User: Which sequence fits this backbone?
């Protein structure tokens, strides 16, 4: 980004920000350094300055009790975070085999995990016997000595890249820099009685009249995101891969939203009017009963702003700190007031703004931005750091986007930190861009991609854009729903025990049966995730897939759009593996334009679904609430001479089908009455059986060591009238 001097207005006076002569906080190092001694020296400084600055953050706590009382219920007390970053070094260095013994096994257990209200986070204090701050400090001293010793003496082979064991050292440092920020937020959320001022954490004192925001045109253009493993700077897994997009012209606000501008929303009863809030935001609003931003306080008709260690009279020209829900509600209100298509920018649009503004990564000079702790420990006025025609494209506060984080094409999980990003691929974590006053190291790089739960606070505000175009997220999250993941694997995953993929096997049998008969249109009813729909399209001109579940067909739709399907599979307990499949992987890319998917009820299909040469109903009839109704009407969907293919293991359950509606599997007139008998009875009027039933096996993976091995009976029926 541009460097050099900037000026800060204090009332009507100008203050030279270059007056702060403290050494700049070390930048993230170039890991392509060719001199091992030079790189050791850089990493030594990078580690020590980070470790020291992190510990100084906890010196803002006023007493030991401040370490043990939670700032917010959804996070551990601060004693956890004091120890966590040190433990991280030990745990990752063990995985990287740079060390072979632990320093303190108990600490490295209790301080290991618990940072983002995930399923593995145990936030019950009854399960912990926290050590004293002095004990944790002593432990940190041990970790400090161990890491310094490694940096000074461990074998170092250049370059330091993704696969180099030294990557774990940089990972630990960058991880601590992230927690420099997240812990500062928790301190800001702490009771004021538990914090105190500190010389290394002085806030800005300048404020004035807030500028009136205006919209500036951002020209259309392309963005190219993602980096490869040869990049000279450390990156988290989500940064690697490729993504490109064309961005149409849009308008963006000149400034990020100030407290003053957001106050208009508060005054307009924005927190009381549900119409401005998304469904998830309404839930947050109902739970918190918020009436204004979290860090705002009103005392005797006077507004104040809570900073990290103190409360100050409201600086109206500083950026508002809000979560995603509040930012989104403001945009919806602004849209209703102006009649314009106001919304948050997407990640791609933020990058287009970044590139159009001519920004670049930080140099060794003081930034022309309130970032990387180059100035003071707080936000500053929104009109202090011009960057092209805009202000604060980078720095001051993070900026919420419309985009849930997703993996780029080519995404890969790092073996020693497999849960950094993948848990956030859940469409519940939105990307924040630009960094804040405390964002350091990797956080300030153009490639950085950080995401938070939409109700979290992270020194984050927003700017808004005006654009009618809102493209969907170009990737997918890792599906963690157990059933959907099993279906994804069943349809698109590996084969087990030598059993051919069931959907593929059915399609091959079907295509052989159809032969040279008409094959213009096919219907895959009960298509689930859609593999057979694609396989049938190898032979048929066009195939329609229909399923009752929108969640299932969503997987097929995703693939048909050219995206990659990503999901997790349970190995054992809480251990999972991550998998991905694309149509290209399966040799089906050429047929993606020959399929379509719809949600529908097999027992009550819409009339337009007719005129098919072939209908497949795979493992469907024993899951219908009224299979007889389905069979009595399915001929209406087929052309005369067309073929109906039914498959089922005939596992009748009252959970799906009332006992009285079973087609078979019971005694009738004292004799066994099979489902095949029932099919002949219900289909006889309009169909003739083409051949005797055959059996096709399938395997469903539940865990690494538990599978279902089932036989499905397959029958073919020709419509005769």
Assistant:
């Amino acid at each position: 980004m541009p460097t050099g001097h900037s000026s800060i207005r204090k009332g009507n006076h100008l203050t030279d920000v270059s007056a702060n002569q403290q050494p700049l906080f070390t930048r993230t190092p170039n890991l392509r350094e060719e001199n091992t001694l030079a790189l050791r020296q850089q990493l030594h400084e990078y580690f020590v300055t980070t470790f020291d600055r992190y510990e100084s953050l906890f010196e803002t706590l006023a007493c030991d009790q401040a370490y043990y009382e939670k700032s917010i219920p959804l996070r551990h007390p601060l004693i956890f975070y004091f120890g966590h970053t040190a433990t991280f070094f030990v745990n990752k260095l063990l995985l990287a085999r740079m060390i072979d013994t632990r320093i303190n096994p108990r600490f490295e257990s209790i301080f290991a995990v618990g940072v983002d209200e995930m399923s593995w986070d145990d936030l019950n204090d009854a399960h912990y016997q926290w050590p004293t701050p002095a004990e944790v400090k002593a432990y940190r001293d041990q970790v400090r000595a161990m890491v310094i010793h490694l940096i000074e003496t461990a074998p170092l082979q250049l370059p330091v890249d993704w696969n180099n064991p030294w990557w774990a050292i940089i990972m630990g440092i960058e991880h601590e820099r992230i927690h420099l920020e997240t812990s500062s937020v928790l301190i800001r959320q702490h009771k004021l009685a538990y914090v105190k001022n500190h010389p290394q954490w002085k806030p800005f004192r300048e404020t004035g009249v807030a500028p009136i925001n205006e919209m500036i045109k951002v020209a259309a253009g392309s963005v190219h995101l993602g980096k490869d493993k040869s990049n000279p700077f450390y990156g988290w897994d989500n940064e690697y891969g490729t993504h490109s997009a064309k961005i149409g012209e849009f308008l963006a606000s000149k400034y990020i939203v100030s407290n003053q501008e957001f106050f208009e929303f508060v005054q307009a009863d924005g927190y009381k009017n549900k119409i401005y809030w998304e469904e998830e935001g309404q839930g947050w609003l109902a739970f918190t009963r918020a009436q204004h931003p979290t860090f705002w306080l009103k005392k005797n008709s006077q507004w104040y702003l809570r900073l990290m260690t103190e409360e100050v009279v409201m600086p109206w020209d500083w950026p508002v700190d809000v979560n995603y829900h509040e930012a989104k509600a403001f945009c919806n209100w602004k849209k209703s007031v102006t009649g314009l298509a106001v919304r948050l920018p997407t990640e791609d649009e933020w990058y287009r703004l970044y590139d159009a503004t001519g920004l670049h990564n930080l140099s060794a000079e003081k930034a022309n931005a309130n970032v990387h702790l180059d100035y003071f420990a707080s936000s500053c006025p929104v009109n202090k750091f011009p960057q092209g025609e805009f202000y604060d494209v980078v720095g001051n506060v993070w900026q919420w986007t419309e985009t849930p984080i997703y993996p780029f094409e080519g995404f890969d999980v790092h073996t020693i930190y497999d849960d950094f990003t993948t848990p956030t691929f859940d469409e519940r974590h939105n990307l924040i861009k630009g960094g804040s006053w405390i964002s350091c190291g990797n956080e300030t790089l153009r490639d950085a991609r950080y995401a938070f739960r939409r109700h979290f606070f992270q020194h984050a505000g927003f700017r808004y854009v005006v654009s009618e175009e809102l493209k969907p997220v170009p990737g997918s999250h890792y599906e963690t729903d157990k059933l959907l993941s099993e279906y994804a694997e069943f349809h698109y995953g590996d084969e087990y025990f030598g059993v051919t993929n069931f959907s593929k096997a059915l399609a091959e049998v079907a295509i052989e049966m159809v032969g040279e008969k008409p094959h213009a249109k096919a219907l895959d009813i009960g298509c689930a995730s859609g593999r057979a729909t694609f396989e049938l399209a190898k032979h048929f001109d066009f195939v329609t897939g229909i399923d009752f579940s929108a969640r299932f067909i969503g997987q097929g739709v995703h693939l048909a759009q050219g995206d990659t399907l990503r999901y997790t599979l349970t190995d054992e307990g809480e251990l999972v593996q991550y998998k991905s499949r694309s149509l290209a992987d399966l040799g089906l890319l050429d047929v993606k334009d020959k399929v379509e998917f719809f949600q529908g009820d097999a027992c009550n299909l819409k009339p337009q679904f007719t005129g098919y040469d072939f209908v497949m109903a795979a493992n469907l009839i024993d899951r219908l609430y009224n299979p007889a109704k389905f069979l009595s009407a399915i001929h209406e969907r087929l052309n005369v001479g067309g073929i109906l293919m039914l498959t089922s293991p005939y596992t009748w359950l009252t959970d799906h089908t009332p006992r009285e509606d079973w087609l078979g599997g019971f005694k009738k007139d004292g004799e066994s009455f099979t489902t095949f008998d029932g099919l002949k009875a219900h289909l006889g009027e309009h169909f003739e059986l083409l051949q005797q039933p055959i059996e096709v096996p399938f395997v469903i993976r539940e865990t690494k060591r538990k599978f279902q091995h089932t036989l499905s009976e397959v029958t073919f029926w020709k419509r005769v009238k």
